[in-house]
Amino acid sequence: MQQNFEQKNLSVEFNNFKIPKIGVIALSTDFTIEQDYNRICHNLNVDIFFNRIPFSNPLNNKNYIAMKQYLKDVAYNILPKQEIEVVAYGCTSGTIIIGEDEIFKEIRKAKPNAYVTTPITAAIKAYNKMKINKISILTPYPVNVNESIHRYLEKHNFEIVNFYSFNLESDFDIARVDKDFLYKTLLNINNDESESIFISCTALKALEIINYVEKDISKPVLSSNQAMIWDSLRSANINNSIIGYGKLLKDY
User: Fold this and answer.
1) What is the pLDDT of residue 51?
2) Which phi and psi angles does 152 have, rounded to 5°?
3) Which residue in 72, 81, 83, 124 has a CA-CA distance of 20 to 30 Å to 178?
4) Is 200 in a helix, a strand, or coil?
């Protein structure tokens, strides 16, 4: 015999505090950025939401600029019609080629009240806060992209002590760079005149070795993802001292 369905309603209690929301725009070719955000943020009182933006290898100005047309829609589709505190656009070289102001303008069409950051925005902000001016740079990019990185940082009054590159043309290859090899490379390029090493590119798997390199060379090391995560969190009023990923996240 079929019985009548009976539902008993339960009372619900809601949290009274607001959890900050950070939206991350990741390149469709980036294997690294989501892992790095999750590695740092998983125990923090913050929610992270990702969306992917179309990008085609190789790394060149044409392919970077092509991303601009998608920025508004990709940002909008991170929690559509919802307010979020921060939007982070995860491409260092793409920001420089497209232009920071253009990145900000397109994203704010979709999320007008969000703070917008990028890896290079965050790195410059971090270095200014740390009062660091003389830097060594390691990138994975080809020559024409490196020239843009060099000019951009000089324009922002940084003294480039030395500049090294792996000269790779694909994000897929960048994500495959061995972490032990990267660690040894960073030790080898360290220069007594520089105050810090900046590792450019969100696809490089640098986050896990930053702490070890800093201990060996006795100076801060910044990477694209580390700096952008730092700026994302601090701009969302998440001020925890985070151990294990460099001086920036620990002390600033």
Assistant:
1) 98
2) -65, -45
3) 124
4) coil
